[in-house]
Amino acid sequence: MYKIDIEPVDKSLQSEIQYILDNKSKPRGSLGRLEELAMQIGLVQNTIYPKLQKPVMLTVAADHKITDEGVSPCPPKMTWQQCLNFVEGGGGIGLFSNLYGFDLYVVDAGVDFDFETHPNLINAKVRKGTRNFAVEHAMTSDECTKAIENGRNIVNHFYERGTNIVGFGEMGIGNTSPATALLSVYCNVPVADCVGPGSGLDKSGVDNKRMVLENAIKKHGISEDPFENLCRYGGLEIATIAGAMLQAAKNKMMIIVDGFITTSSALAAYMINPVVAEYFIFSHQSNEHAHIKMIEFMKGKPLVNLDLRLGEGTGAAIVYPIIRGAIEMINKMTSFEDGGIYNTTINKACAL
């Protein structure tokens, strides 16, 4: 069992923030999700003047021996090759992080490769990949705990530097399999309703993946302890992100959740302490059909649906201008009074 205390969001300013939003020069509620975001961030930061500081993107990487079962069409060496690409600013996450103002760091949580030191690479390797959970538990309790603690320590490092919003992505060939298994065991959803093509499996490949995961869950069972399920079926990057999210919430930081695998980390964190979800911004609905099942289980709503399925944190980066827009709106958009609009009848009509 793993425990961490997180304070629920203080809602004492809710009425005051709502008054500010309702008195912007617009019909009440007409900016929709932007108003919801402004409210959420204002409450998390306990201020009517929320702000975003030093955004960081953490793309966390690890390998998975479950790939021995043919659950991915891609060779495992792509994990470390892509990590080298990302730290040099390449790939989708390199492009979008630079475009939207994130400091991007790749976290080696368990890649089967020895990296040279790089300023954009954080060494948090627990071991070189998880075990094949078709045969044995993916991680020992000590390994899973270490990964969670590594994530917490990484987030604390950036928090102490002034970061108050962090995006999460992942890289790891085969990691849709642990994500799918966690969705199934945490949410009590049959594997057949969770499994998808990942990075490009055909129908026979998806059928094989389904059978591998069903047999693994039958072999190891489902524990009442969410931490134990994470040990059995998770990944080192998934556990590291889960720990990072738990600590970010403890630090009252905003958390931008990316796609299917990153959301499985959010789900693991949620199962450990459901309060963490109050700090989540679900960036998008992935093209992996079961992604929305995770989000809805945590009572969340994705900001956009762009049919993304790349991972890496790309969805989290792409929505950042929307989040910034929400903050600019509450802080800088004119009110009716600012605009010299004082007709009570008009104001009441526009507030409907």
SSE blueprint:
Layout: H1 14-22, H2 32-45, E1 56-62, H3 77-87, H4 91-100, E2 103-110, E3 121-123, H5 141-160, E4 165-171, H6 176-187, H7 203-220, H8 226-233, H9 236-250, E5 254-257, H10 260-272, E6 280-282, H11 291-297, H12 314-318, H13 320-332, H14 344-350
Parallel strand pairs: 1-2, 1-4, 2-3, 4-5, 5-6
Q: What can you tell me about this protein's structure?
A:
The chain is an alpha/beta fold and 352 residues long. It has helices at 14-22, 32-45, 77-87, 91-100, 141-160, 176-187, 203-220, 226-233, 236-250, 260-272, 291-297, 314-318, 320-332, 344-350, and strands at 56-62, 103-110, 121-123, 165-171, 254-257, 280-282. The protein folds into 2 domains: 14-50 and 328-350, Nicotinate-nucleotide-dimethylbenzimidazole phosphoribosyltransferase (CobT), small domain (5,6-Dimethylbenzimidazole Phosphoribosyltransferase, Chain: A, domain 1), CATH 1.10.1610; 57-326, Rossmann fold. 46% of the residues lie in helices and 9% in strands. The chain has a 6-stranded parallel sheet with strand order 3-2-1-4-5-6. It is globular.
